[in-house]
Amino acid sequence: YFHDFISNLSRDEEGNVSKGNLDRIMLALGYLSHRCQIADMRQWVLVVDRNASPNGQANGGNGKSILIRSLFGFLNACEIDGREFRKSSGDRFAFSSVSASTDIVYFDDADINFDLKRLYSKVTGSWQVDVKFKDTFTIPDKDAPKVAITSNYALGGDDSSTQRRNFQIEVSDY
């Protein structure tokens, strides 16, 4: 059944399963499913609607969150509300629920103001975690959690810093 689910997510505009899209989804799931870190290949996985436009919202409700949450059964995950993670917030405690045993930090339903640049050092380096009323601690880059983001918007920029950290998969409205 799970293969049917991801096959449906990988359908093209004509409704056919796209082998390239299916392979990309499976590659993203495989990448998120382990803690192996190759220093110059670390990226976030961004799952967006195929029909998302740069300035307009897609319909959503097509299984992006279910796809990422399917990993929660066997991985330790930390879920963060993507609508609250904005450039203007700058909340230094945003990652306070991340621990040394966290496998995936998942930003659910990121909006158009989601600040990808705040994740640059987290994706490519160590994680400094500030927790209220406790000492700050650091998760070394070799043990750092992976990052997954779902959004109804086309996020990011075309600058090289964003592009080299971005592994984007598009899911269909099937």
Structure report:
The protein is α/β, with parallel strands linked by helices and 174 residues long. The protein is 22% helix and 21% strand. It contains 5 helices and 7 strands, in the order H-H-E-H-E-E-H-E-E-E-H-E. The strands form 2 sheets. The chain has a 5-stranded parallel beta sheet. A two-stranded antiparallel sheet has the order 4-5. Strand 4 and strand 5 (137-139) form a beta hairpin. The longest helix has 14 residues, at 19-32.
Write the layout of secondary structure elements.
Blueprint: H1 2-9, H2 19-32, E1 44-49, H3 64-69, E2 77-81, E3 104-110, H4 120-124, E4 127-129, E5 137-139, E6 146-151, H5 160-165, E7 166-171
Parallel strand pairs: 1-6, 1-7, 2-3, 3-6
Antiparallel strand pairs: 4-5
How do the strands line up in the largest sheet?
2-3-6-1-7
How are helices and strands ordered from N to C?
Answer: HHEHEEHEEEHE
Strand content: 15-25%
Helix tally equals: 5
Number of strands: 7
Mean pLDDT across the residues is 89
| Coarse morphology | globular
Q: Major sheet: size, sense and barrel closure? A: 5 strands, parallel
Poorly predicted runs: none
Distance from N terminus to C terminus (CA atoms, Å) equals 15 Å
Radius of gyration, rounded?
Answer: 16 Å
What oligomeric state do these chains adopt?
A: single chain
The computed structural class is alpha/beta
**Fraction of residues in H or I helices:** 10-25%
Can you give keywords for this protein?
174 residues, 5 helices, 22% helix, five-stranded parallel sheet
